[in-house]
Design a protein that fits this description.
Blueprint lengths: L1 H37 L3 H26 L54 H14 L9 H5 L14 H24 L10 H10 L8 E3 L2 E3 L3 H20 L9 H28 L9 H25 L1 H6 L3 H14 L20 H24 L1
Antiparallel strand pairs: 1-2
């Protein structure tokens, strides 16, 4: 028993010596820099101290912004109450009697003439709100200076930390970009008989802007307008379109063939993401040690988050088509599939074997839900094509 105790004591001492040596190795550069700094004069000390304070401040702000997710709510679609809308987007609303209006017995000539009002587009409203959450309620992580500099020069997406929010934002932005293209090409105009809406065209152009631009860049060299400024301009353009639509001065073409094309584009987009998830899951299943698994997961999650809102809004904008084609049941089932996917929020993303016990495959799980939603979208498209 004494020999075993001596062995444990020696093992403990060895471990402690190893920890001390490792700590000394980590602290040596700091101690050496501190010794060098003490021997310099104020002309060198003050600029270095100011740079260090600025660096720590920027890093602290960056870490804070990556960890605080303002406005994130998988159930945020409920506040729009799309189920209460019984008029499709762009259709004229029935005039309602306002408080203080003329009584029914008043002469018709004395009644005030109410301006025409049309139903706004839920799709446009949601697209603007999703972008607003990305760049106004939160900092756009992908274009922040510390994100661009990386982790000692290593791209943050290749590290296992501080990149989840950036990937999620880019996933949401992908849904808005795809939606803006469809709004310009088909939904926001009468096909073949009207021109492209200027506000929607401006929004599409601004949303296609590079996601990583800061105030200064090297390719090309010089000052730039940062990414969030373009996306904020897109928000204004989308809301201007909806304002014109509400005043019956714009067009939303809610025909069945436009819905077919819109659903088809979303299904293709999710199919491409599913292929990326499958490729990563099959070829890089390193469990917790796959440093790209987290950004793949959160990009897909952001897409599902965005398309859940977009599809909920489309159900209101195309409610007449959905009623005529008896799509209510499968449409609601598709939305439930999206809601089910958004319940998956593991603390640590793992890309292990699909039958793994300790390190499961979260990529396979989110990929499964992505394929389920895509299958429902394909079925909706098939019904509409009949």
């Amino acid at each position: 028993m004494s020999a075993f105790s001596a062995f444990l004591r020696r093992a403990g001492e060895t471990i402690m010596r190893g920890v001390k040596l490792f700590g000394a190795w980590l602290l040596w550069p700091i101690m050496a820099a501190h010794g060098w700094y003490r021997q310099r004069n104020l002309l060198i000390k003050l600029p270095l101290a100011a740079f260090l304070v600025l660096f720590v401040g920027l890093y602290g702000y960056f870490v804070w912004q990556t960890q605080i997710w303002s406005g994130f709510d998988p159930n945020f679609v409920d506040r729009y109450a799309f189920q209460t809308r019984n008029v499709g987007a762009g259709q004229e609303l029935s005039p309602s009697v306002q408080p203080g209006s003329q009584p029914a017995t008043a002469a018709p000539s004395s009644a005030p003439v109410q301006p025409r009002q049309c139903q706004q587009s839920g799709i446009v409203e949601v697209a603007a709100d999703l972008t607003d959450t990305n760049v106004n309620q939160n900092a756009w992580i992908s274009s922040m200076l510390m994100y661009r500099l990386g982790f000692f020069g290593l791209d943050w997406d290749r590290t296992p930390f501080l990149d989840n929010k950036a990937a999620f934002q880019r996933g949401v932005n992908q849904t808005v970009r795809r939606t803006a293209v469809e709004l310009v090409d088909s939904l926001g105009r009468v096909r073949g008989t009207s021109g492209i809406n200027g506000n929607l065209q401006d929004a599409r152009g601004n949303l296609q802007f590079d996601e990583y631009s800061w105030y200064f860049g090297l390719q090309p060299f010089g000052f730039k307008t940062p990414t969030p400024s373009y996306y904020r301009a897109a928000i204004d353009s989308l809301r201007k379109f909806n304002g014109d639509l509400a005043a019956c001065n714009a067009v939303f073409d809610g025909r069945a063939d436009n819905l077919v094309q819109f659903v088809d584009r979303i299904a293709n987009d999710l199919g491409a993401t599913s292929a990326i998830l499958r490729e990563r899951s099959e070829n890089y299943n390193g469990g917790w040690f796959d440093t790209r698994a987290d950004d793949r997961f959160w990009f897909a999650y952001g897409q599902l988050y965005g398309y859940y809102a977009i599809m909920s809004a489309a159900g209101a904008d195309f409610n007449q088509v959905i009623r005529e084609r008896n799509l209510g049941s499968i449409w609601n089932d598709t939305l439930e599939q999206f809601r089910g996917a958004l319940k998956i929020r593991p603390l640590i993303i793992s890309n292990g074997a699909e039958d793994g016990l300790i390190m499961p495959s979260h990529l396979a799980t989110i990929g499964f839900y992505t394929l389920r939603t895509r299958s429902n979208l394909v079925e909706i498209r098939a019904i509409l094509d009949r």
